Amino acid sequence: MLKNRIIPCLDVKNGRVVKGINFVELKDAGDPVEQAKIYSDGGADEICFLDITASNENRDTIIDIVRKTAKECFVPLTVGGGVRTIQNITDLLLAGADKVSINTAAVQNIDFVKEASKKFGSQCIVVAIDAKKVSENKWEVFTHGGRNKTGINAVEFAKKVEFNGAGEILLTSMDKDGTKSGYDVDLLKAISKSTNIPIIASGGVGTLDHLYDGIVKGGASAVLAASIFHYGEFTIKDTKEYLKSKNIPVRLHNA
Amino acid sequence: MNVTIVDYQSGNISSVINSFTEVAKGNFNLEVTSDIKKIKTSDKIVLPGQGSFKSCVDSLNSINGLIDTLKESAMTNKKPLLGICVGLQMFADIGYEEEETKGLGWIPGKVFKIDNQNGKFKLPHIGWNEIELQKQSKIFKDIKNKSHMYFVHSYEFIPKDKSVISATTDYSSKIVCAVEKDNLFGTQFHPEKSDKNGLKIIDNFLRL
Predict the structure, then answer these.
(1) Residue of B53, B70, B143, B177 with fewest CB within 10 Å of its CB?
(2) Contact B14 A94 (CB under 8 A)
(3) Out of A2, A40, A197, closest to residue B127 by CB
(4) pLDDT at A178
(5) How many CB atoms lie within 10 A of CB A51?
(6) Residue A164 in contact with residue A145, Cβ under 8 Å?
(7) Which long-range contacts (CB under 8 A, 24 or more apart) does A54-62 make?
(8) Which chain A residues are Cβ-neighbours of B129 within 8 angstroms?
(9) What percent of chain A has pLDDT over 70?
(10) Which domain covers residue B190, as residue numbers?
């Protein structure tokens, strides 16, 4: 039976993990490579890096981080943030990423998704959709980290990226992100029901029950979270054992 | 011992290179190449494959003499060859992704899209799934039944002779996820992305 995936996400800025962490075993709390290795050793099903570096000149640092991480972590590695060109994707894949996540560039030019999935295969193209609720059961796509309104209906856009070859959708609720009050389950449900590709839920996790809700109520194939893992509130192992106790199919450590 | 990972521009093989490098730890001489002279002198061959069946076959065909060299090594000289993902699928006679495309024809069979029961199962089949061992396979030495492996695919190889199937996985139906026929080995899942279990399979292949 296919298992639901638990994906820790690391926000990286200028080569350093942004959010605070208090793993005692860490020599360098801000080192993304070391952090990724701990997650991978702990049984993470996938590792996600989100590069939030603002300036272009520091973009090479993420390539270097991916290269080092890929030599130590043998689970899938997804990298997002600033992916705008075929060359960006080539560079990340050559460094050892398995998938790239495309956000703003997919909204600006859907042909980019089509071209990328044709060239590299759908299996490595994730489209990240940031959505905000505008009225009952209606969500709009936002870009540039939630700053820019697009007027595009999120459900319609999800269908469009599937049609153009995206292999997965990483769906973030901008209303919920950072609130620790749980995923926007209605948004997840609306999009997982209207598409036939796996949905990765993101934005708002504060408790393990939120992960459960994302999978059971929202229909997500995978759940992504950042701060509950960063701050050491829960380990990947705790998370999986909890979900397993609630009858969610998960891959337990080294199984 | 010379091991060649065939680089025929079939998409991303960095993870395959990283994992084999990790397992080989300098005890095996790894080459990543499409140079047919090097492939000829290689003791073992790894054939990765990403993207569509058609694009992989087209890429193999675009390198002069590559298919004949692979065939000679695998079918005449019986050197161990491991096909991964589309690398395994290409063992078939025919694939139906994009359009009907002739495969290598090394193991009789065809590659079809997974029957997702009218959308009941999402495609691609992405994530960790258990493998059910169907027979003793040398590359599964010390791998427990129902071990988890990482999958990402929408098509499956259906061999004519079921006795070549070494493992299946459950996704809408029992999908063939590993084959062994003489010196030919193939996995539909990605051992290079399957954590310790996957690295063990790579180790088993290198030690054949």
Answers:
(1) B143
(2) yes
(3) A2
(4) 84
(5) 26
(6) no
(7) A54/A13, A58/A14, A58/A15, A61/A14, A61/A15, A62/A12, A62/A15, A62/A92
(8) 1-3
(9) 94
(10) 2-206
* Region A66-87 average pLDDT: 95
CA distances from A8 to A20, A103, A168, B4 (A): 14, 19, 16, 34
Contacts of B193 in chain A (CB under 8 A): 74-76, 98
For residue A54, the model assigns a pLDDT of 64
Predicted local distance difference test score (pLDDT) of residue A145: 76
- B56: annotated active-site residue: no
Number of domains in chain B: 1
Q: Is B128 on the interface with A (CB under 8 A)?
A: yes
Mean pLDDT of A195-211: 96
Query: CB contacts < 8 Å between A and B, how many?
Result: 104
Q: What is the pLDDT of residue A21?
A: 41
User: Is the bond preceding residue A32 a cis peptide, omega within 30 degrees?
Assistant: no
Give the fold, CATH level 3, of A5-245: TIM Barrel (3.20.20)
CATH for B143: 3.40.50.880
Residue B190 annotated among the catalytic residues of the structure = yes
Average pLDDT over residues A69-73: 96
AA identity, residue A27: K
Structure token pair of residue B205: 């292949």
Nearest to A132 by CA among A190, A189, A170, A173: A173
Tokens 């994530």 correspond to what residue?
Answer: B127
A73-82, A100-109, A122-131, A145-154: least confident range = A145-154
Q: Is B85 a catalytic residue?
A: yes
Per DSSP, the residues of B131-154 read -EE-S--GGGTTPPTT-EEEEEES
Mean pLDDT (chain B) is 96
Say what the pTM is: 0.95
The domain ranges of chain A are 5-245
